[in-house]
Design brief:
alpha+beta, 3 domains, four-stranded antiparallel beta sheet, flat
């Protein structure tokens, strides 16, 4: 009897340990911690778009055609600025292509820093292979020049062909110039001059923004952070970090938080892809999914007249009709968790295309407790 009691106690401890492990595992599976910098953006940390108009020269007959008047005018203006007068009617731009040059300039860029640029043809050039971009000023939204771009372009494709055949790989009218632009003017913004920092979360959820606000105030030791709306936090810079925001930003970026989000089901109808969040729930519901398949096949036949008769050969239509209905039983699905929901849908043999119809119907019936987004 003592041995039995000992064994029962031993088994009871083992069962309790297993249950605790399951609970801990389920909680950890749902509540994944992430760094704040992976789900948020900070004011003052951004890039600025630059754009310019330029010419790519040195092409092997793959440039703009004679009808590209803006290319011809650009060539004439460039040569005139160099002291060479030309008749625009005599210019053949087949070795030149008019392009738009774009780049992204980070707010921390300083004069002398280099930027990668993208060169895109705006005329009817067939390829930019082997071309060189001439000196091109890149302007910001305020119309000021912030960088200068120039250099040989690099393509990730080609375009070759003759009169009867052609071969094209990737897009030969868009090219890159790594480190092809030099910054000439810094942005009129000083990061360390900020008295307040705005933190914009990628997750739009009141629970998440409130929890992160509490974690920031706990870390800084005061009510410095205030949640402004569902995804925005305004942080007043503490006195010890004013004009020296880098240590503050480093500590905030690497702070671990536990984001929460609304239960959601996302459906891509074009590819049949379905993604469900962990918190998706479904009320007990009965589902029957069946398909009715109708096949109509035309098999025309020929009717031949008897020999030496006055009849004529004619075509006689013949139609074969086949109706097949897949009979499936009514299945009850109890979706207290995502696993049970998936197991229930798999039990009725639903394909991804069937699931799209099932999920829409469940949402219409009020049984699907999640936001349904269909693309």
């Amino acid at each position: 009897m003592a041995i039995l009691k000992h064994l029962n106690k031993k088994y009871l401890i083992a069962i309790l340990t297993t249950l605790v492990s399951i609970v801990l595992y389920s909680n950890s599976a749902r509540c994944e911690v992430v760094r704040l910098k992976d789900i948020a953006r900070f004011s003052g940390v951004r890039t600025n778009q630059l754009v310019g108009y330029g010419l790519v020269v040195g092409l092997s007959g793959t440039g703009d055609k004679r009808g590209a008047q803006f290319t011809v005018r650009s060539i004439a203006n460039m040569l005139e600025n160099m002291g060479i007068k030309v008749d625009s009617k005599q210019i053949q731009p087949k070795n030149v292509a008019a392009v738009i040059v774009s780049a992204q300039m980070p707010v921390s860029a300083r004069p002398g820093d280099r930027l990668d640029v993208t060169v895109s043809s705006i005329g009817d050039a067939s390829s930019l292979l082997g071309g060189v971009l001439l000196l091109t000023p890149l302007k910001g939204i305020d119309g000021k020049v912030y960088a200068i771009a120039q250099g040989p372009v690099l393509l990730g494709g080609y375009s070759v062909g003759g009169q009867a055949a052609a071969s094209v790989k990737n897009v030969p009218t868009v090219a890159k110039i790594p480190s092809g632009a030099i910054v000439e003017r810094p942005t009129p913004f000083e990061f360390n001059s900020q008295d307040k920092i705005t933190i914009s979360l990628d997750i739009r959820d009141f629970s998440t923004v409130e929890k992160i606000t509490e974690d920031i105030n706990k870390k800084l030791g005061g009510p410095y952070a205030v949640a402004k709306d569902i995804s925005t936090i305004e942080l007043t810079v503490p006195d010890q970090f004013k004009h020296n925001l880098v240590p503050l930003m480093a500590s905030l970026e690497n702070m671990y938080v536990t984001p929460d989000s609304k239960a959601k089901v996302v459906v891509d109808e074009k590819t049949g892809t379905i993604v469900m969040g962990w918190d998706v729930r479904i009320s007990p519901v009965a589902i029957a999914q069946g398909n009715l398949q109708v096949v109509v096949k035309e098999i025309p036949q020929v009717s031949q007249p008897a020999p030496f008769s006055l009849g004529m050969t004619v075509g006689v239509p013949r139609t074969q009709l086949k109706v097949e209905e897949k009979k499936k039983k009514l299945n009850i699905i109890r979706g207290a968790s995502l696993k049970e929901l998936i197991d229930g849908l798999n039990a009725i043999g639903a394909s991804p295309r069937d699931l799209i119809s099932i999920l829409r119907t469940l949402k219409a019936a009020g049984a699907l407790h999640a936001e349904l987004e269909v693309y």
